[in-house]
Design a protein that fits this description.
Rossmann fold, 285 residues, 2 domains, 9 helices, disordered N terminus, 42% helix, seven-stranded mixed beta sheet
């Protein structure tokens, strides 16, 4: 994990609004489900579908841990193209989405999201205190510069009613120009400082075989960096990563990723949660 000072330096050259607006524009038609702009831009559609499925399984587990009942008022912060909003509605929740990028919200509407969608930022939510029974944040705060992360968590806690829940799914390892993760203790501590009580947490996306393969592929390609998100597309130049090499790379991952995903439930039983790339945290206010 980067030190706080290094993260601040990176944040100075990084504009979240511009970053997500460019993804919404460049990848809006990459797949019919709208996964590419909010998951792994540039990855094959099958890969994003698989990652989305793993995340959905984790979110359902977190919802059960939080004991959220049908009819609950749920806010999804950083709703992007609306994939969680639509699922929350299917589960019987009264869902609302907020995102700082209008282009993402337009995509959410085009994909059939009928719930209220509001343009706004995580660190200054335009809602009254205690408006929602639960707030979810799926891989959002990790993209917010470190200086604003405490404000974002504070705002999420503010709009939750007493006894309500906060669900966070965030990176607990890696680094990058637009990624500012904390380790598991860091996320728990930050939420605790904002008045949240941890109900439980678990690791998400171990994918050990695939992580080993990606690391090996990066080494062969001449990169000295492990990918910020171990399941992401390696950040190497076009000269290093020709069309043929890319096809071979993704062809091999077509094997390593499903096998890794299949093995994850067993890996979770034998490996500590912090070995995973993400943590899913469930808090109570």
């Amino acid at each position: 994990m980067k030190s706080r000072d290094t993260s601040h330096n990176l944040a100075g050259a990084y504009s979240p609004k511009e970053y997500w607006a460019s993804l919404a524009e460049d990848f809006h038609s990459a797949d019919a489900a709208g996964f590419a702009p909010v998951l792994h831009p540039g990855a094959p559609p099958w890969f994003n579908r698989l990652i989305d499925g793993l995340q959905f399984r984790a979110v359902r587990r977190a919802l059960g841990l939080a004991n959220i009942q049908p009819g609950a008022r749920v806010l999804d912060v950083g709703c992007g193209t609306g994939r969680w909003i639509r699922r929350y509605q299917e589960l019987g929740f009264l869902a609302t989405g907020i995102d700082a990028t209008p282009a993402m919200l337009r995509l959410a509407r085009e994909l059939g999201t009928s719930a209220p969608l509001i343009a706004g930022e995580a660190h200054r939510l335009p809602f009254r205190d205690g408006t929602f029974d639960s707030v979810s944040d799926i891989t959002v705060i990790q993209h917010i510069p470190v200086s604003l992360q405490p404000l974002a968590v504070t705002e999420m806690m503010r709009v939750i009613r007493p006894g309500g829940s906060l669900i966070l799914m965030e990176l607990i390892r890696g680094e990058g120009e637009h990624i500012f993760p904390r380790n598991s203790e860091g996320w728990i501590e930050q939420a605790g400082l904002c008045g949240a009580k941890l109900l439980g947490w678990f690791g998400q996306e171990f994918l050990l075989l695939d992580r080993l393969f990606v690391h090996a592929a990066q080494t062969v390609a001449g990169s000295n960096e492990i990918p910020a998100k171990v399941s992401a597309v390696p950040q190497v130049s076009s000269s290093q990563h020709s069309t043929v090499a890319r096809r071979i790379y993704w062809g091999l991952r077509r094997v390593t990723v499903p096998i890794s995903a299949w093995a994850d439930p067993v890996i979770e039983l034998v490996c500590p949660a912090h070995v995973a790339t993400h943590g899913v945290f469930v808090f109570e206010k």
